[in-house]
Amino acid sequence: MSFSVELRKEADPIFNAIFEHPFVQGIANGDLKKEQLIHYVKQDFEYLNAFIRIYGMAISKCKDRKDMEMFNKQISFILNSETHPHHNFCQVADVKYEELQGYPLSPTAHQYIRHMLTVAHEGTLGEIIAVLLPCPWTYWEIGKRLLTEVNPDRSHPFYEWIHFYGNRTDSITTKFCARLDELVKEATNIEKEKMKEHFLLSCQLEYMFWDMAYKLEDWPVKMEVIQS
Ligand SMILES: Cc1ncc(C[n+]2csc(CCO)c2C)c(N)n1
Known about the structure:
The termini are far apart. The chain has one domain (about 5-215): Heme Oxygenase, Chain A, CATH 1.20.910. The protein is mostly helical and about 230 residues long. The longest helix is centred in the first third of the chain and has 26 residues, at about 35-60. About 75% of the residues lie in helices and about 0% in strands. The chain is globular, with a radius of gyration of 18 Å. It has twelve helices and no strands. The structure holds the ligand Cc1ncc(C[n+]2csc(CCO)c2C)c(N)n1. The ligand Cc1ncc(C[n+]2csc(CCO)c2C)c(N)n1 binds next to helix 4, helix 5, helix 9 and helix 12.
């Protein structure tokens, strides 16, 4: 069994819990409150900014152009394409995308971003791929399952979202898995254990991100944001 297949197997209960989560089920049946969609987009916009920066940190650890190109393509993808599913949520919530940008991070978004930043700062290239992988992998599986199980028509409010994630053929997940499986061959047992740990924690944080949006999670004590 390849390392990536081993990781997917261990994470199976988390992948299933994510699919069963009421926010994901809300995408399936078109039943989400405007505030939940707005909270998700506000937090995800900042999450994607952090993701782009982490790809930049990954590039700084690459030894060859092929790896650099892989991450560079993903930066462009986030900047130019990952905006489509956000626009879908904004349209359903009847808000302008620009109005949802620049908000402070919720506790869970903060935790997830800090987890990825720590690994990007301290880890090897293999550890960085392991920490980033649950992001595309969980969304790809959600998209594919919703596409087959819901098979939405154009009148479905989240038709665009489901097709965007479900229809990816040239998947970054496949590329990351292949690269991780190569890198693990040269890794020590300690590094391999760290890769697994980072991957599983990111899977848990993917679940928590949906939960954060669904429950409109915020800090226990609200602070006034002082604009300079
Ligand atoms: C919390 C959270 N997790 C995953 C994604 C999906 N996603 C974000 S960046 C990217 C491309 C990776 O190169 C994908 C698939 C999201 N939007 N928000």
